[in-house]
Specification:
Elements (H helix, E strand, L loop, with lengths): L42 H5 L4 H16 L6 E3 L2 E3 L12 H25 L3 H13 L7 H13 L7 H13 L27 H11 L7 H17 L7 H10 L7 H11 L8 H25 L12 H11 L6 H24 L2 H13 L10 H20 L6 H25 L6 H11 L2 H7 L10 H8 L3 H19 L11 H9 L3 H25 L4 H18 L12 H9 L5
Antiparallel strand pairs: 1-2
């Protein structure tokens, strides 16, 4: 019998922060807007000027910081994470030193503003912009980045450096600014092949290889660039020196445009001092920024550990949080990150319920209740599903009262997306119950939706503030190609990773099995074909930045979401077998960077 679902504490508002960039307090509200006059403060909020999460995490941190020991670990199904914050590199008392760190960060940002202003040419601008982005501090310089991009695209650029040409190409494309692949023609022979002399430029080849992965459909020249650069990088990688050797190794595993940015930031922070153009000011701010944000993220995780689910469901809090963290790590998106993590936990519960625990009749009853979205529909359900259904409604009700009054419609769109997802789950169950064998195309059309990624593409927008309009929600709720593509990438990568490990009893046939049966081929042939299809989906994702430029802030977050799939599914199913993620979790949330 399932255990009762312990209610999650309502998200409470924090007291004002001491700095717009950092604070030891955790701001859980979305962007500051007028709140509904009927929303009342909770008793906990009235009793103390700080939120419950601030109260609950502060004592734990002080104990850890002063004693230098781990806090109570959080166990996630197959892995135990010590969600503690070790002694800060500046001081054993983080809260005492935080004011100094904030002041130091503000001074460093002023110095970096001057660096942007002092750039005299395109090469200086692209070098600075690339460094700021890869060090993870670009969110502090949004205005400066926009100005630099405008100057880069307008200024004449005649560089003969493969590295600089590739860097400019990549920076513009990843910001939704079109630049033709003809930019690389200067490095080709008359017959269209790449010149032999560039094979002696490993830095340029690496930049070409990474940048070429921003290709869209019908760009064979960039496909050729990937093949050419990969071949020569593989030949030379054993003879390269650090840090270029490590950068090449990572890129050959996962190209830079598809990495989880914060993981790559950790790598680059440790490597940046070896770059010939490195600037100590950028590096110091990057380390300080990462450590301060790490403390914010750890507080969010500790708060979320109080969100418990049904005892039969996969306990995937930390893994789910990483997905949301990959979408937006910036402090101002704390509310969005926490609500999205709760959505993902609910999806995991729904998936396990439909897939493994409910009978066909109970699945139909649960879907009927979710379509009604009414507390009175609880009577339709067996006891263990009543607990889940009540929690589902409560989390959405809480979110509606916590967003600004002019943003309450956000949650209504997400509710509709959850109702759609429930219907997709039920369709899969009906297929299984009827022993229906779908075609590969039909299977992928349904399973790309039932994996939940398109649902979360709607949910991730809640609380993001001014860039998100009602029109943007209408667009996302229509499941545009970028959202469906995100679902296809998740589904196909998940199926490939899970195939060798077998599938749980009751699972519907995977896309690989459907392809094997329909085309009468081996698993090796099927996987090879699906990998080719995946490359096409990445092209569609890149193209969305130009096709949906008016919704670029959302598209870029969806691309971040898709990139996170590689952390979980690149060769192994780390979401199901979370022991594979332990080192990543510790680096992102537990171990501060030495200053």
């Amino acid at each position: 019998m399932a255990a009762s679902l312990k209610p999650t504490p309502a998200i409470l508002l924090s007291s004002p922060c001491s700095s717009p960039a950092y604070s030891s307090r955790l701001p859980l509200q979305p962007s500051p807007r007028p709140r509904s006059p009927h929303v009342q403060a909770s008793p906990a909020t009235e009793a103390t000027p700080t939120s419950r999460i601030e109260h609950e995490t502060r004592g734990t941190y002080n104990h850890v910081a002063s004693a230098g020991v781990a806090a109570t670990p959080y166990t996630s199904a197959t892995c135990t994470y010590n969600l503690c914050f070790p002694p800060n590199p500046y001081s054993l008392h983080f809260q005492r030193s935080e004011k100094w760190m904030i002041a130091r960060g503000d001074k460093l940002k002023e110095d970096i503003n001057m660096l942007f202003e002092s750039c005299k040419c395109t090469v200086e601008r692209i070098t600075l912009l690339d460094s700021v982005q890869r060090l993870g501090i670009d969110h502090h310089f949004k205005k400066q980045v926009d100005i630099a991009l405008s100057q880069i695209i307008e200024d004449e650029f005649t560089s003969s450096s493969l590295h600089h040409v590739a860097l400019r190409f990549g920076l513009l494309r990843e910001h939704g600014l079109w630049v033709s692949s003809d930019a690389f023609n200067k490095f080709k022979n008359e017959d269209g092949s790449f010149r032999k002399d560039i094979t002696n430029d490993p830095k340029g080849l690496l930049s070409l290889y990474n940048t070429a992965h921003l290709l869209v459909h019908s760009e064979p020249s960039l496909e050729e660039a990937i093949s050419f650069a990969r071949h020569h990088l593989e030949l030379m990688r054993d003879s390269l020196k650090s840090p270029l050797a490590e950068q090449v190794q990572r890129a050959l595993h996962v190209p830079l445009p598809r990495t989880l940015k914060r993981v790559e930031t950790l790598h680059y922070i440790s490597e940046y001092k070896h770059e010939e153009w490195h600037n100590p000011t950028l590096l110091e701010l990057a380390k300080l920024d990462f450590n301060l944000l790490q403390h914010v993220h750890l507080k969010e995780l500790k708060y979320l550990t109080k969100c418990v689910g049904l005892n039969y469901a996969r306990d995937r809090l930390v893994e789910g949080y990483i997905w949301c963290y990959a979408i937006y790590h910036e402090k101002e998106f704390a509310f969005s990150r926490i609500f999205l993590t709760k959505q993902l936990m609910l999806i995991s519960l729904m998936d396990d319920t439909y897939d493994a625990h409910a009978t066909i009749q109970e699945c139909r009853q649960l879907n009927a209740a979710i379509q009604r979205w009414d507390e009175r529909a609880t009577s339709l359900l067996p006891n263990y599903l009543k607990r889940f259904y009540t929690e589902l409604l409560r989390i959405f009700k809480d979110a509606t009262t916590e967003v600004a009054i002019c943003d309450t419609y956000h949650v209504a769109y997400v509710r509709k997306a959850f109702q759609d997802l429930s219907a997709y789950y039920l369709q899969e169950v009906e297929w299984l119950h009827q022993n229906h064998k779908p075609s590969f195309k039909d299977h992928l059309s349904l399973s790309a939706m039932s994996i939940g990624s398109p649902t979360l593409c709607v949910g991730l927008m809640v609380g993001m503030g001014d860039p998100i309009t009602r029109e943007a929600f209408e667009w996302a709720a229509s499941y545009p190609n970028v959202a469906i593509t995100c679902g296809k990438i998740a589904r196909l990568m998940d199926d490939i990773a899970a195939f060798t490990g077998g599938k749980a009893k009751g699972d519907m046939a995977s896309s690989i099995e459907c392809y094997m049966v329909e085309h009468r081929v081996t698993s090796e042939v099927a996987i090879s074909k699906i990998l080719s299809l995946l490359e096409d989906e990445w092209k569609t994702l890149n193209q969305a930045q130009f096709e949906h430029h008016s919704h670029l802030p959302v598209v870029q977050r969806i691309i971040n979401f898709a990139n996170s799939m590689l952390v979980f599914y690149a060769g192994k199913d780390a979401y199901t077998f979370s022991i594979n993620l332990k080192e990543t979790v510790e680096s992102l949330f537990v171990k501060p960077i030495p200053m």
